[in-house]
Write a sequence for this structure.
């Protein structure tokens, strides 16, 4: 991959990066795992709104991309997940920066959404 490629090219680094966080719950799971090793059931109870099936799919995707590690304990046959070094670099770098941006600009985004929604409702009523 090159540093200067079209983001529409299949092998572009920008596309690779956005694909890693394209699924709604993947970044949420990564952020939840920043606190340390967690069992799936704990993630399920702590992440509001995620279903068991969707969480399981997210864990599989994140593991397949090398962002998390699955840890099994032979003593009690428990399974837990934690960030890999690669996953930690994403969660503590770009995702943390994106989270700070969202906090700093949430009011502006919500205002724009409200404005757009009001305009869309006005067009629908007139049509």
């Amino acid at each position: 991959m090159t540093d200067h490629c079209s983001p529409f090219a299949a092998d572009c680094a920008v596309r690779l990066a956005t694909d890693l966080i394209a699924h709604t719950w993947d970044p949420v799971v990564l952020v939840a795992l920043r606190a340390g090793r967690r069992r799936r059931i704990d993630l399920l109870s702590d992440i509001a709104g995620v279903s068991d099936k969707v969480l399981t799919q997210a864990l599989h995707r994140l593991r397949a991309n090398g962002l998390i590690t699955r840890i099994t304990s032979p003593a009690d046959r428990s399974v837990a997940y934690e960030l890999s070094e690669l996953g930690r670099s994403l969660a503590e770098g770009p995702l943390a920066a994106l989270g700070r941006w969202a906090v700093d600009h949430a009011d502006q985004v919500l205002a724009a959404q409200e404005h757009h929604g009001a305009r869309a409702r006005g067009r629908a009523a007139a049509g």
